[in-house]
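Hey, resending since the last one bounced:
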Amino acid sequence: MEFSSKEKFFLKNKYKNLSRNTGLKISSSGTTLIILPDSDIAFDLAKLFFNKADSKITFLLKDSITGFYPNEIISQCIQYTYSDMNSLGLPREVFIQKIQQYNFENMIDLNVSFSRFGAYLSLLSDTKVRMGFNYDNSKKYYNVILDSNYQRDLDGTFKMIQQFIKI
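The structure tokens again:
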């Protein structure tokens, strides 16, 4: 989905101060935020990462689908609602600042197709590693691009992510 010139201008002006936060950011905590997709594969991905990850991970999950997840995974979730998005489907400044306060070192967007919310949250959250799958313009949002064949091999995807970050 492409932005119009008016939307691009609006986004540039609105988020220019958030892209590189110069506030009181302390050293990174070494934790990872995993943005789960809205698809049915998200449940399997969450279980896989929960069971195999050695380091501290947190999931970002839409509040409308948390009822499908076990309590162990929900206890490690940050939930977002439609009120955390603006009319363009992008994260609001307040939500971006909330995520920045957690001081994540890594952010992994597991959406195979472009998600405005996940991509812009990854870009604006000021993490060291912003990881996402390959699609048009993914280089703008992520500094590590993953192969998008994970729907067939979830374990392979986990191992591929482990090659880049300690998780």
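The first strand starts at residue 32 and ends at 35.

Sorry for the duplicate.
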